[in-house]
Amino acid sequence: MEFIDVINERYSVRGYLDKEVEAEKIEYVLKAATIAPTGVNYQPFKVYVIDTKKYKDELSEIYGANWFTEAPYVLCVVALRDKAWTRPWDGKNIADIDATIVMDHMILAATDVGLGTCFIGAFKKNKTHQFLQLEENEEPVLFTPLGYGNAEPRDTPRKQLDEFVVYID
Ligand SMILES: Cc1cc2nc3c(=O)[nH]c(=O)nc-3n(C[C@H](O)[C@H](O)[C@H](O)COP(=O)(O)O)c2cc1C
Hints:
- By secondary structure, the chain is of the alpha+beta class.
- The protein has one domain: NADH Oxidase (3-Layer(aba) Sandwich).
- Helices cover 34% and strands 14% of the residues.
- It is built from six helices and three strands, in the order H-H-E-H-E-H-H-E-H.
- It has helices at 3-9, 23-35, 56-62, 95-112, 125-132, 161-164; strands spanning 45-51, 73-80, 138-146.
- Strands 1-2-3 form a three-stranded antiparallel β-sheet, with helices on both faces.
- The protein is globular and about 50 Å long.
- The mean pLDDT is 98.
- Flavin mononucleotide is lined by residues 11-12, 14, 118-122, 153, 156.
């Protein structure tokens, strides 16, 4: 797919078919994570690939929407804060930015091969720590289901360029 088609066709898929995803498609999506840029190339992240059917109860406690557990897989990107670059002069740790870029790469790759996804930020962090047995400096940043979509996009109007572009000239 052309790049512009990929970014136009991605939308938050809030309904999935009970249909297996081919192994090569999962690999394609995960490989996109390895291409993602990270600060100083430290690559301070992990990607958890969760078997939805096996862990439906745990996942439902993490994020309650029914459609969250419909696809065969749920992905979670975890930021490794102690392995990320920190801006020395003001202490900003960029692990969450790195993790977000990783998730975006995977989500766009999934779109490219006809799979549906949805960024999920409104999950329960404590439940996630318990389920994935994370250390304190490991921060779950985003989830997404990964599977064949079974829902139309919502109406999500976007701002016009002149509403957010600020030229400093
Ligand atoms: C960082 C981030 C977190 C999000 N978290 C959620 C979420 O927890 N639940 C949900 O249903 N959608 C979530 N969304 C999806 C947004 O609501 C959606 O991207 C936005 O409404 C635009 O719609 P579109 O993705 O269909 O273009 C999130 C999106 C982003 C970028």
